[in-house]
């Protein structure tokens, strides 16, 4: 079974490595790690956020960023902000990673001839080799489900851009994250 994430030692902040079979799974696992750090660190503790469990607050997040790594940090900070504002812990119900402009690296700006192939409307990424493609704008659409909490177990101030670098190793996507606590 694939490990979803592991917490790594770090001198001043909370540092972790996150894994996923797809980019979407990587983002979901990172959000799960954030939820577990905020509330109930133990994976053996049951934490269920679903409409079936009586939690029906579904919120939508739509974000755009210049890079996939920045998008992950922006996504987690958006969840963190909503958690602090609403006193809730969130799980990702559904997520789609989107792009508006993918072309071979070094291809430069799209010409009028390329416009029919390089649209500026967001569309779902089916399979992307980020090593050979230049992604101009990337985004996501996600549905998150929240569960109210009385207090958080850990005070996460922010998810930082330090050390984040999403890459694919074999069949697994991975990145490191640093949480400012």
UniProtKB/TrEMBL annotation:
What biological-process terms (Gene Ontology) are attached?
tRNA processing
Pfam families for this protein = Archease (PF01951)
Family annotation (InterPro entries) = Archease, Archease_dom, Archease_dom_sf
Keyword set, alphabetical order: Calcium, Metal-binding, tRNA processing
**What is a single molecular function from GO for this protein?**
metal ion binding
Occurrences of domain Archease (ranges): 5-181
Protein family according to the UniProt entry: Belongs to the archease family.
Stated name of the protein: Archease domain-containing protein
Q: Which organism is it from?
A: Candidatus Harrisonbacteria bacterium RIFCSPLOWO2_01_FULL_44_18
């Amino acid at each position: 079974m694939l490990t979803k994430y592991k917490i790594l030692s770090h001198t001043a902040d909370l540092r972790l490595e996150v894994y996923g079979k797809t980019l979407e799974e990587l983002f979901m696992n990172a959000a799960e790690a954030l939820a577990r750090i905020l509330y109930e660190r133990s994976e053996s503790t049951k934490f269920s956020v679903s409409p079936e469990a009586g939690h029906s607050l579904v919120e939508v997040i739509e974000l755009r960023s210049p890079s996939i790594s920045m998008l992950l940090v922006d996504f987690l900070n958006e969840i963190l902000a909503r958690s602090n504002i609403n006193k809730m812990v969130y799980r990702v119900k559904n997520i789609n990673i989107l792009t508006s402009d993918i072309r071979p690296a070094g291809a430069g700006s799209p010409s009028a001839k390329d416009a029919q192939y390089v649209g500026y409307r967001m569309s779902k990424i089916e399979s992307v080799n980020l090593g050979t493609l230049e992604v101009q704008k990337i985004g996501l659409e996600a549905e998150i489900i929240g569960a109210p909490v009385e207090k958080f177990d850990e005070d996460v101030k922010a998810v930082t851009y330090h050390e984040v670098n999403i890459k694919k190793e074999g069949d697994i996507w991975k990145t490191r994250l640093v949480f400012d606590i």
